[in-house]
Specification:
The complex is a heterodimer of chains A (461) and B (377).
Chain A (H helix, E strand, L loop, with lengths): L2 H13 L6 H10 L1 H8 L10 H8 L5 H11 L3 H13 L4 H4 L2 H14 L4 H9 L2 H6 L13 H8 L10 H10 L3 E3 L5 H4 L6 E3 L9 E3 L2 E3 L3 H9 L2 H15 L17 H13 L4 H9 L2 H4 L9 H12 L10 H9 L22 H14 L6 H11 L4 E2 L1 H11 L7 H12 L4 E2 L6 H17 L7
Antiparallel strand pairs in A: 1-2, 3-4, 5-6
Helix pairs in contact in A: 1-2, 5-20, 6-8, 8-9, 9-14, 11-12, 15-16, 16-17, 19-20, 19-21, 21-25, 23-24
Chain B lengths: L8 E8 L8 E2 L4 H6 L11 E2 L5 E2 L4 H8 L3 E8 L7 H10 L10 H9 L9 E4 L15 E3 L14 H14 L8 H20 L1 H5 L10 H14 L6 E7 L7 H25 L6 E7 L18 E6 L6 E3 L20 E2 H12 L5 H4 L11
Parallel strand pairs in B: 1-8, 1-9, 5-11, 5-12, 6-7, 6-8
Antiparallel strand pairs in B: 2-4, 3-4, 5-10, 9-10
Classes of the chains: A mainly alpha (461), B alpha/beta (377).
Chain lengths: 461, 377
Amino acid sequence: MSGNDIALMAHLMRRAGFGTTRAELEAYLEKGYENVVDELVHPERGTPIDEDILQRYFGGEGAYVGIWIYRMLNSRCPLQEKMALFWHHVFATGLSKNEHILASSNQIDMFRRVGMGKMRDILLELSKDPAMIFWLDNNDNRKGEPNENYGRELLELFSLGVGNYTEEDIKNCARAFTGWTFGQPIPLYPHGYYTPSFMFVEEEHDDGEKNFLGHTGNLNGDDIINIIVEQPACARFICRHLYNFFVADEPQVPSWNVTPPNDADAIETLADAFMASDGDISHVLSILFNSDFFKAARFMKVKSPTELVTGIVKLVGTYQRPEPGMGKYAGATQLMGQKLLDPPTVEGWHTGKEWIDGGLLTSRVNFAVREVSDASKPGIQDIITRLKSNGNSLSPEEFVDKCLELAGPVEVGDTTHQYLTQFAEADGALNFEDDDAAAENQARIVSLLQLIVASREYQFA
Amino acid sequence: MATTRKAPVLVVVQLTGGNDFMNTLIPYTAGIYHDSRPVVGIKAEDVLPLDDTLGWNPHAAPLKAMFDDGDVAVVQGIGYPNSNRSHFRAMDIWHTCEPEKIGTEGWVGQLVRELDPRSENVLTAVSFGQGLPRACALPGIPATSVGDLDNYGLMTSIGDEGQRTRALEIFKGMYSTPVGSGIVMDYLSQTGLDVIKGADELKKAPAMYKSDVEYPQSSIAKSLRDVARVHLAALGTRVFYTQHGGYDNHANEVPTHPRLLKELSEAIQAFFTDLRSQNASEEVAMLVFTEFGRRIRDNASGTDHGTGGGAFIIGDNVKGGLYAEYPSLDPARWVHGEDLEHTIDFRGIYGTLLEQWMGVDATPIVNGNFEQIYPFA
């Protein structure tokens, strides 16, 4: 297999998943690229994680984000978790307002369950999701007293994008969703969290005539969604989101109505697949991952905090089985500007370049450096073993190149390469013959890995 | 320009989500206010009267006390034309002063470029909290974003000082030459180098800080205490940016909004008390703003996005009082039949601060000439 095959597979698994251990990467390579894509877009064929074990090790509602990160690391269907994260980016719902961890976590479970299906079903489930209903106040959306928050964001941020509907459409959309609410859950105190569930309240629903995107009638929310998913604007909007999340960074969402896509042909290809398949997300994803524009987009996206954290944990090889301590990774993504389950606004997180500023870069670098500092972690041990298997001695340059290869492969520019080599040269060749040098070698390998994960290039997926 | 012995400093407090101005400064004698807001309206007997038409929300008592001392200029009816009521567009517009197209140059970033044209001090603008607001973003202009002031710096987990120094030297080298592979990589490089410079300076602040003032427990109080610590360390910071979130009260406004106003006004009071006790307040002016006001009528639980809002300019050199006009409550004047009409453009208020306080030409930053107010003594 060529170096390019390895680099391409690592690229696929950084994007469609959350990175790999070296052993996983080699196993994927055995299967071949197209087969791996096929497996990724059909999670129903895989073996799900044992839920009982998760509950036993991580139980308690507050631990959900930790459990989710554990799933990202260990799911046999990593794309399913990646898509749950994708929809969480797009349908951003914040715990800061909901203050109901079970409702929020149920929403993520719903994204996992339906997130790779038809767009129509996804929007329908979303519109019935209690966390979303509360987040955008649809429980206050009643006949005669419409609250247009959900109606507006459904069109602006969740399906069509600004410019593809009018203020009148928003008002009519909101009226169609009157009475879509949830049953009050059993009070939190002293009973604990109980799952709220969707409820349609007939008497709060506005049965009058509505006009929406050229359709007229006594439209209900279901009708609205059916109309939305047939709009070419919906295909383009969702596919631009997919491109932005999986291929390369686009400008921030609010500018999409005035700034054209970076690769309009790619969006068109995906949108055609969306329209031709009745909005089948799995199908669109298989076209995306097999496309030349995807394969050519290596390191063209700034890693989200979640991608950075999971990528590092994959690299150091910890948490391959449940054990306590996942919560610290939830805290780590938060310090880097991505508090999972709690995006700052309904617009979701600003991505790409906006993941980086002085404070956030500091958090990213410090986290990565700290994680790789412990040579006893299985992933670091694996790197040491593989370095040794290359012979008794490695020149500083070989040492650098091998570490870059094993840590990714990470592709770095000349400047980074030059300084890493300069760092390695200060202590000469890496010599495995002398057993007394083992501890020193280990420290040198850790130091070099710390600099690799602190590099500019490592910030990109 | 107002004269202070020290270089003027601007502290921006962004109320994220759209603060309900009508429930902050309440037209408590207007029947139409009470009729329009059966659920969220504040009863006339509960307000803290300012005059015979307007009164403060009772939870903003510390702010009212500062107003009574003559330190708070209230900018009534602030807004901009043709609001589409989207938070994100609204915040973008406030951040970039570009109501018509998508701007990328933040107004604070442009101010920093005027104050420090050669980017000599990476701490000229410091933002506290999660992420750098677009207001501070301007390609090539450094703005330091601090999440945790007490542990700011790179690779702090490397315990051995010699090793850490060596690693930081290599880090500097790796981030030194922009590889030219695009604006993101170049930006990343500059950010990395700025962090190293800024961290060496910022770590002085917590060590130097001493104060008898107790700040309340809230995120905005923590941010303003961080502003005080850095300001008192005299690191040359001219603009501080902080955010207080949670103002998007479509629902359950009654418990939420008063709590926010209480947190905000207590934090501001503690901040100025702290600075005054250390003789470091007269060079500071604070702007408190939000992206829009809210609808006149409540929706039986909260209020939806509206237009004309309100802002505050606070400081020792401020001539307290009411500025611009309270938006008309006459239904004939309502925009779209449901929104308050703004009476002054926010770009004129930025202009006021930029020209009369910071001493820079506002026209290129706010993209035009807008009516200013004169709130400085």
